[in-house]
Amino acid sequence: MYSRSHAVLNDKDGALWQNMGLWWDSHSGSIDRGFTRASQRLFNRILTSTIPQTERVGELRVLDVGCGCGDEVEAIGEYFTRFTAGPKVTACTLARVQASAASDRFRNGTGTAFEVDIHNAEAVAFTMHQQPASFDVVVACDCLYHLRTRAAFLEGCRRVLVEGGVFACADLVVCERRLSWWEEVRLQGVCLISGTVRENLVPPSTYRAQLVGAGFSDKSIQIDVLPHEHTFLPLADHIHKVCGSGSGAQAKATYLVRQGFLAVARMLRWWASSGIVSMAVIRATTT
Q1: Which band of pLDDT confidence, cut at 50, 70 and 90, is reported for residue 3?
Q2: Using alpha carbons only, how large is the chain's radius of gyration in Å?
């Protein structure tokens, strides 16, 4: 599921977006049922949260963690060219297939208005091997819960950011209340199957404490928990539409891939009905 099988969910030719999406369109005041647009909308929500730190002229260095197949990198370049003549985008992903796809995409001429450097690397190790204060902005979309330790990543993230730099991400958080033993058992099982590190699923208060512990400014931290009706539930509906029996997905995806996505849809509905897990957009600055 973290190779290129997510192509089946995209409803725009050539798009390989891979996040849960923000399905609420504030302009129309309604749910937008397009997966590709929802994924772009969530990522754009991250990018816009980096303002006003990026409203300046000159070189802008951006690190994209969990870059996928290159759609995020292209969006970063398009967005930040509003503020600088040519941003430098460094991106990393642990998935070799995705790193290769992203590299090929820009090697063939896409995004030539800005500099791109793609790496097949694990995020924690990658940040620890970069020079201190080497980036102005670090972004990550719907991926940090897979890291072996998010706390270590946040420390590395703070290390590579300049003074006044900004970190912004979309990430999963759990509710503040204590989970029942059965909820905890089910959540542990979901984490095991999905490759999610249970210790990375923390409530917003703990997430804030981790950011402060890593050296980010407490007063700068914003954690906006998104409604399930704008995130998980429309995605679950879209998965059932695309991967359910009788859909056109049979020609685009194998049976196992479709069943895997349908299992994700069941998980999302449980998270939404129980309120245990939510998607949040998080922003913090170094000063």
Answers
A1: low
A2: 18
